[in-house]
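Quick log. Single chain, no ligands specified.
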Amino acid sequence: MADEPRGWLARLRASGVDPYPAHFHPTHTTVQALAAFEEAEASGGTVRATVGGRLVAIRVMGKSTFAHIADGSGRLQLYLRIDEVGAEAYERFTRDLDLGDFVGASGEMFRTRTGEATLRVEEYTLLAKALRPLPSKWHGLRDVEVRYRQRYLDLIANPDVRRIFEVRTRLVTAVRQSLDERGFMEVETPILQPIYGGAAARPFTTYHNELETTLYLRIADELYLKRLIIGGFDRVYEIGKDFRNEGVSYKHNPEFTQLEAYQAYADYHDMMCLVEEVWSEAAARVLGEPVVERAGRRIDLTPPWRRITMRDAILERTGIDIEAHRDLASLRAAMAERRLQTDPQPTWGRQVDELFATYVEADLIEPTFIIDYPVEISPLAKRKPGSPHLVERFEFFIGGLELGNAFSELNDPIDQRERFLAQYRDLTAGDEEAHPLDEAFLTALEYGMPPTGGVGWGIDRMTMLFTGQTSIREVILFPQLRSKDGE
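-> predicted structure:
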């Protein structure tokens, strides 16, 4: 097996073997074959099976060979004897096949002297010849850059990585199940939008040649989902891709998966109940109990979760009462007095948010709702009665990670227009993350939207928490990376 793979290809084709045949029909997966054999063995029966998979181990022992194949379900040992498959086929297997090749094999299951359930091969078929060696040939795949750029090799070499994405898939299924059980309807809204909105972020811009118009990849689903509430659907949700033209970090990827859900005749208190119920149910369904682990610490997601105002959370950690410092100058003076340093922000609300992010967020380990945010950083949320400078909004945190955002949705079209105009002034003054003026949404809102609660959270960060990962790139199959030649 020392020849170059392309030499193998030429020899195989010369001998009449197609190294990439068009058809193969297995009767069992590897796991199904093992299960069927164990069941038949218990009753004294036999099992015949045709299986397919990638060769991951080969051990030649003269006139007999043991090999292992792996498919999407697991692994199975194969056993070949020269007098059972024929001299020519046996020589081809031991000479021309190597680790990484895909093969199909048929035969009867038996148990070896060492007790391993094995397929005694009567005939085999080469299904696909690999022209490059598997990562295991150079002791696994550890280079992070290679792992992300060639995720297929990562999945082959690192079983724990496969588990992350299996958990992610089950997680999305569990979330859908919980929302469907509560009467929510899953919908799809436009990804290409004439006006971006629903969040504070810079968009990706594109151009439609036929329509001769600039379009944007959506930064959020919110404004279209609210149109459906206006149209009479009382409970809707969407799980889909959003795009934000921003930096890449351990918790940010320009392309990410977001869930947003909206419920008529509800407020942010109802959304808190929805979040803690759906998250605890998802953990129980996917992990077996409503508990996740982060940094070696077990975190119980069982409701109810802690609820604390942003004001009290900041006061606990910094000693500053933001309500006693209601303008930017006063707040900055209080911070300077306590030697608290953050990036300077242009408004009181943004400075409050920055103070919170710097000194509070990382310490929110147990599931926590932070409620009641400044109105100027929440243009789509309803004002809090009696405190018009605040809104009925919460973000929730687990393991020191911000995981989602929710409002009592603003349904007053006059107030919404004023907020949009204030944001538009910020946009024209150079704030690239300010919300643009969306006349089409305002028109829809003028037809009337019932009191509504809305919530959104990132599926990627949810998966980070459920799988114990500290980087968002570990839970996205193909994360965004800087370009390299040919990739």
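The longest helix spans residues 159-181.
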